[in-house]
């Protein structure tokens, strides 16, 4: 048994302390693999990849099993177990850990009828959720507030790294891109962006899988991108976000590109990486909703530090990101504003005229757990089963 490290900044890495020289996955001969892929597949078998969040709270794990029919809903997929002592989720002497299927997706890597099975993790043979399983917390709140129809839109920013651990397309030897960051946000041109193929492949795969995949854009930092999930009802938003992270890791294997969600991967002089959470309820979206939105903002202000504690995989690194620079608000200080990208909470420009709308919580770091963030936003704004 071991404890997993928190999501680590790679800005301390230099290519000398590189992870590896080559990524083997994307140079294995795909033509050879094709011979096996062309073998007729038994019509009574389905490949299912069971996927879960490990003890780090940011990395994911998967393992495959063969089923005899397609599970179209999570309850149709059998529960399963794994060795939690190898994933930072259990001790060796009590290692069997339960996988509870939570959502089913089409497998974009093998295509139909094969499936991806998103699971949440329970200690032992059930009962208690594992320490990094926040899905239950979030889902209970979604169920509790069903009538309010909570909607979420999640903007996942991320950084592409070469397998040596340095930024994709960044100069080798520890150098930084020559071009400053004025041109890279929604940028076009080889000088300004790197890795569009990865973003494009990921988008196609996510759409095939059946995610509420909304869009993509290049971000301020070279090699940094964003995708959006939404606008989704309740638990589907964080479910799809986690599945889109899994799919991104798999696409990255194919290209030999490593993906990091670290909030400040290259240190204080370079832009940060976040995951804005956009949120609304039926009441916020109805006439007069603006007044309710103001009430919610007051509650969010009161609970600011409670949110900040869990708005990243590691509080310290999100603190680094929320410096007051690069379109962020300072970590310690809550603020809000209309069309203000230096505020903790931004409201869309037209919200006052319309008298209704949604809020954007700009505080979560790129490596946050959207189950925790969505859950906490609901709990703070709407109350919970316990209050
Ligand atoms: P920006 O980068 O300017 O913040 P994006 O287009 O990246 O804008 O993200 C806007 C997000 O807002 C989308 O994820 C979208 O789903 C979400 N959104 C739009 N309307 C609502 C709403 N009524 N409730 C919740 N989220 C919403
Ligand atoms: Mn084994
Ligand atoms: Mn965005
Ligand atoms: Mn962005
Ligand atoms: Mn945003």
Write structural notes for this entry.
26% of the residues lie in helices and 22% in strands. By secondary structure, the chain is α+β, with helices and mostly antiparallel strands. The strands form 2 sheets. Strands 6, 7, 8, 9, 10, 11, 12 and 13 form an 8-stranded mixed beta sheet that branches. The chain is globular. The chain starts with 29 loop residues before the first helix and ends in a 5-residue tail after the last helix. Residues 12-17 have low confidence and may be disordered. Adenosine-5'-diphosphate binds at residues 151-153, 155, 214, 228, 230-231, 276, 278-280, 285, 358, 360.
Task: Report a brief summary of the structure.
Belongs to the glutamine synthetase family. By secondary structure, the protein is of the alpha+beta class. The chain has helices spanning 30-37, 135-144, 196-209, 236-255, 282-285, 289-302, 304-310, 315-321, 351-354, 370-382; strands spanning 46-53, 60-67, 80-83, 96-106, 115-122, 151-162, 213-218, 224-233, 257-260, 275-280, 336-338, 345-347, 359-361.
List keywords for this structure.
alpha+beta, eight-stranded mixed sheet, binds adenosine-5'-diphosphate, binds manganese (II) ion, ligase, Gln_synth_cat_dom, glutamine synthetase activity, glutamine synthetase, Gln_synt_N_sf
Sheet with most strands:
8 strands, mixed
Which ligands does the model contain, each kind named once? adenosine-5'-diphosphate, manganese (II) ion
Give the number of helices: 10
CA-based shape: globular
Note the run of SSEs as H and E: HEEEEEHEHEEHEEHHHHEEHEH
What structural class do you assign from the helix and strand content?
A: alpha+beta
Q: For the CA atoms, what is the radius of gyration?
A: 21 Å
Question: How much of the polypeptide forms β-strand, as a percent range?
Answer: 15-25%
Helical content stands at 25-40%
Output mean pLDDT: 92
Alpha-carbon distance between the two ends: 37 Å
Instruction: Give start-end ranges of low-pLDDT stretches.
Output: 12-17
Strand count: 13
